Amino acid sequence: MPLMDKEQIMQIIPHRDPFLLIDTIEEMEPGQRVVATKLMKPDEFWFKGHFPDYPVVPGVLMLEMLAQAGAVAMLALPENKGKIGFFGGVKEAKFRRQVVPGDLLRLEVEIIKVKGPVGVGKGTATVNGEKAVSAEITFAIK
């Protein structure tokens, strides 16, 4: 049983379909860390064009999934209620495995630094324990 489903996630972050890219929150310590999931259904909008005969999740969307997971952790803090998290930068992004229809992506983000409205999260996404992507994401909360 997940900690949060999509409806509960939407009470924290402003993203909506088709751009709400996380399905559940499995674990969370607000302002510290979060574990989310995304099941790659065969009918996801990006698979139609990326690529029609070889469907693969775009790397930038996996970065967005990590960012949305991190946003849940930060925006769950009472002082951030109703705010929005924005990308400030991405460092050290590494893509190690293709993610395809049917894969369940586990998204883990640890908040490693916060100074005022700006912070940094270290994110890793895995499929069956195998690392798919990792990156350091800088964010700003407004």
How is the secondary structure organized here?
Elements (H helix, E strand, L loop, with lengths): L5 H5 L13 E6 L3 E7 L19 H17 L9 E11 L8 E12 L2 E10 L2 E12 L1
Antiparallel strand pairs: 1-2, 2-4, 3-6, 4-5, 5-6
Please give a structural write-up.
The chain is α+β, with helices and mostly antiparallel strands. The chain has one domain (6-141): Hotdog Thioesterase (Thiol Ester Dehydrase, Chain A, Roll). Helix content is 15%, strand content 41%. It contains two helices and six strands; from the N terminus they run αββαββββ. The protein has a six-stranded antiparallel beta sheet with strand order 1-2-4-5-6-3, with helices on one face. β5 (118-127) and β6 form a beta hairpin. The longest helix is centred in the middle third of the chain and has 17 residues, at 59-75. The model has no long low-confidence stretch (mean pLDDT 98).
Features:
41% strand; alpha+beta; 15% helix; 142 residues; 6-stranded antiparallel beta sheet; globular; Thiol Ester Dehydrase, Chain A
Widest sheet: strand ordering = 1-2-4-5-6-3
Helical amount among residues, as a percent range?
10-25%
Count of runs of 4 or more consecutive helical residues: 2
Overall average residue pLDDT:
98
Shape: globular
Helix-strand topology string: HEEHEEEE
Summarize this entry quickly.
The chain is of the alpha+beta class and 142 residues long.
